[in-house]
From TrEMBL:
TM annotation in the entry: 7-28, 286-306
Protein origin, superkingdom: Bacteria
Pfam families: GGDEF
Protein name: Diguanylate cyclase (GGDEF)-like protein
InterPro entries associated with the record: DGC-Regulatory_Protein, GGDEF_dom, Nucleotide_cyclase, Rev_trsase/Diguanyl_cyclase
């Protein structure tokens, strides 16, 4: 019989192992599918970023060319030469036109004239620069995109520059191509589904001109819907969907391009995922065979081992039974009443006590409320205590009221429960503790009242650090007996309910139970904290200060943590005002030199787990002394203030801006998307400074020396690099920026 049982166990174990491995393969395949979807998302976002960067770069080149014509051209020949040189710089434009005052497209170099019916001509003469959606060109009847910018003379639009991009059915120049080893394909479309460009491969299902028509009429959606796609486009969101078409299934990730309302659709065939899953299944199957052999060998040794120790179990069981008898005897000698709780049966047995007979309560925890065994206020406390000892096997002690035993609602009992590993039961004692609890509450409330009056606190609470219970708290001058409230995350979250959002983390850490214990035992940390809470009377936030002190109760020598809150709003506002004045430049409100340098040094000392794009730059106004000399210092101060506003508006989200004195400013940009984004921001700053206008005529421009942050740890290193770049900038024409490099070659 025993041999048959062992055989069945071994066979069952093998079947369980095989089932587990098949389940493991299923999980691995699901994870691979999920990882593929995530990679599809990454590829889609990278494609959209690449697409956006290329077109934004083309737009910048058109804008720069229009600005060059605005400042340099004297004749039609000059315009023709500028545009012809621009076309020879290996950009992506098929044609570049100049729009004259008659709204005609001109190529002065080749002496060509052409009239366009597209509305971007009108936008140019409204002073707008932008990128059109795709349209059919009247010039050659091909599908094209136009990028345009106005040309100014004396603050008036006199023409414009238009770059034309020819789009074909499979243009890879605009699309990120490393998509699953070229096993996927990509569509770039306008908001109405018109295809701008695409990558085609053997898995392509659609070769038309409008992708939305295909999705609306030809496919069956497995996940998502056509209207859901339109809704995501309307809200400029990214997301997944999948569809089936002629027994072919495709997974698609769509993401906006941030140009007009263009979108990128990255599509992958289910065959790609199936190939990856098959490869993983083969490798995993080989691993399963190896593990199975190892498992069988280990199973043999385990069976042999248990055969040897089986005889020792009987001796251990006898010792446990003897230990159980000793525990029961000890409990009877040291308690008023004993109870036993059977975990499996959910039944509680009360031993006979004085004139009360032995009682058995079945379905105890599940039917606790109907028994009226414990007062309503302590029902949850009892349930939590039972569950805690069942889960952790650690001794539990608490005080509560038990009407079922005392026949009234006012008698307190001290409860102590231990876990019996022999029979998986709980054994506990009940001792009348009403007198101690009454004295304790009176002493605590009286002491807390005196302390709160002494400290003029408008709120306070006290915690017994031994039992981790909130014994009392006061708010609005009213005291509450809270002896059964746990000092845990739930209680602290109530404190944070009206706390200012940015202060919540530091307040949560300050009142953390382990930190409070460390403060008492090792004096490690602060005993006070200042933060903001919402004041319903003033409908605004106010500053308060919580202080912590520790005292022992004379009645039982238990340690209390007492926390008091005081109103420090007026005091704090004065302090913050003084700090602001000490950190800011008086004329512009920007950071002064000392504060700016400290902020940069603090940032450079931080360690980051991913690569970040940061830059340091010096901004110096060109010929600023002449403004003061010719227009007066009041105009000079206004120029300084308006330049400060431009720098602050462009850099406040992820940067620090400071004034080092006179017309010299410093900027530190951090956590940018790319170095190209930083350069674009610098160009924008230069344009806006050039655009400052006054009643009295004066031209305002700036020179900027900058460097990208690499491994520098101090602001002084970055300042010296930028100072060298600024020197070169000033000596090569001004009104521009230069970038410092390690070999001291300066590139624009």
């Amino acid at each position: 019989m025993k041999k048959l049982l062992k055989t069945l166990i071994i066979i069952g174990s093998i079947f369980m192992l095989i089932f587990s491995f098949y389940d493991f393969l299923s999980i691995i395949n699901k994870l691979n599918t999920r990882n593929t979807r995530e990679h599809l998302s990454d590829v889609g976002k990278q494609t959209a970023n690449t697409y956006s960067e290329i077109f934004q770069s083309l737009k910048v080149s058109i804008v720069n060319t229009s600005e060059l014509i605005s400042t340099s051209f004297e004749s039609q020949k000059d315009i023709g030469n500028i545009l012809e040189n621009f076309c020879h710089n290996k950009n992506l434009f098929a044609r570049v036109w100049y729009v004259d005052e008659n709204h005609l497209l001109q190529n002065y170099y080749h002496k060509m004239t052409y009239r366009s019916k597209n509305d971007y001509i009108d936008k140019i003469f409204k002073g707008e620069a932008g990128i059109t959606n795709s349209f059919i060109s009247d010039y050659n009847h091909d599908e094209v995109i136009a990028i345009y910018a106005p040309v100014y003379k004396k603050n008036k639009v006199v023409g414009g520059v238009v770059g034309i991009l020819d789009l074909n059915s499979e243009n890879n120049n605009y699309i990120y191509q490393d998509v699953f080893d070229n096993q996927s394909y990509v569509f770039a479309v306008t908001g109405d589904g018109q295809i701008i460009s695409k990558i085609k491969n053997t898995h392509t299902l659609y070769n038309g001109d409008n992708y939305f028509e295909f999705l609306e009429k030809e496919v069956h959606f497995d996940q998502g819907s056509y209207h859901g796609i339109l809704e995501m486009i309307d809200k400029e969101k990214s997301g997944y969907f999948s569809f089936s078409y002629q027994k072919n299934k495709r997974y698609v990730y769509m993401t906006p391009v941030k140009i007009n309302n263009w979108y990128i659709f990255t599509v992958i065939s289910n065959k790609v995922i199936d190939q990856q899953n098959n490869y993983i299944n083969q490798a995993t199957s080989l691993l399963i065979i190896k593990i199975s052999i190892f498992f069988l060998i280990m199973l043999f040794f385990i069976v042999r081992y248990f055969q040897k120790i089986n005889s020792r179990y009987e001796t251990i069981n006898k010792e446990l039974k003897t230990s159980n008898k000793k525990i029961a005897l000890l409990l009877k000698q040291n308690s008023d009443r004993i109870f036993e709780y059977n975990i499996k049966n959910d039944s509680l047995t009360l031993d006979a006590w004085n004139d009360y007979p032995k009682l058995l309560l079945n379905s105890f925890l599940s039917n606790l409320h109907n028994y009226n065994f414990v007062s309503k206020e302590h029902e949850q406390l009892l349930k939590d205590s039972f569950h805690k000892i069942i889960e952790t096997h650690q001794k539990v002690i608490f005080d509560a009221k038990f009407p079922y035993i005392s026949k009234d609602d006012e008698t307190w009992f001290h409860v102590s429960i231990i876990y019996n590993e022999d029979n998986e039961k709980l054994i506990g004692t009940l001792r009348n503790s009403s007198r101690e609890m009454k004295e304790y509450n009176v002493l605590v409330q009286d002491h807390m009242f005196k302390n709160s009056i002494y400290s003029q606190a408008f709120a306070m609470f006290a915690v017994n650090l031994k039992t981790r219970k909130v014994v009392i708290y006061q708010t609005g001058g009213i005291y509450y007996n809270a002896i059964d409230v746990e000092y845990n995350d739930e209680f602290i979250n109530k404190l944070l309910k009206n706390t200012y959002k940015k202060d919540r983390d530091k307040v949560r850490m300050f009142f953390n139970y382990k930190r409070v214990q460390n403060l008492y035992h090792h004096h490690d940390g602060h005993d006070r904290i200042e933060f903001r809470i919402f004041n319903e009377q003033t409908n605004d936030y106010m500053w308060i200060r919580f202080r912590i002190q520790f005292e022992r109760q004379s009645s039982n020598n238990e340690l209390l943590m007492i926390a008091y809150a005081n109103n420090i709003h007026s005091e704090k506002l004065r302090q913050l005002e003084n700090e602001f004045k000490a950190q800011r430049d008086g004329l512009t409100g920007l950071y002064n030199r000392q504060t700016f340098n400290q902020l940069v040094d603090d940032y450079l000392k931080e360690e980051f787990s991913v690569a970040r794009y940061d830059a340091y730059m010096i901004v110096d106004l060109d010929d600023f002394k002449s403004i003061n000399d010719t227009l007066g210092h009041s105009y000079g101060d206004e120029v300084i203030q308006r330049v400060a506003d431009i720098l602050e508006n462009n850099c406040y989200e992820s940067g620090y801006v400071g004034r080092f004195g006179g017309d010299e400013f410093v900027i530190f940009l951090y956590d940018q998307e790319s170095n190209a984004q930083i350069e674009n921001k610098v160009r924008k700053i230069l344009r806006e400074i050039n655009g400052i206008k006054f009643d009295k005529y004066c031209e305002i421009s700036a020179s900027i020396g900058m460097t990208f942050v690499k491994k520098e740890k101090f602001h002084q290193e970055l300042f010296e690099m930028c100072d060298k770049a600024l020197y070169v900038c000033k000596n090569s024409g001004k009104n521009r920026f230069f970038i410092y490099t390690e070999n001291e070659d300066i590139d624009e």
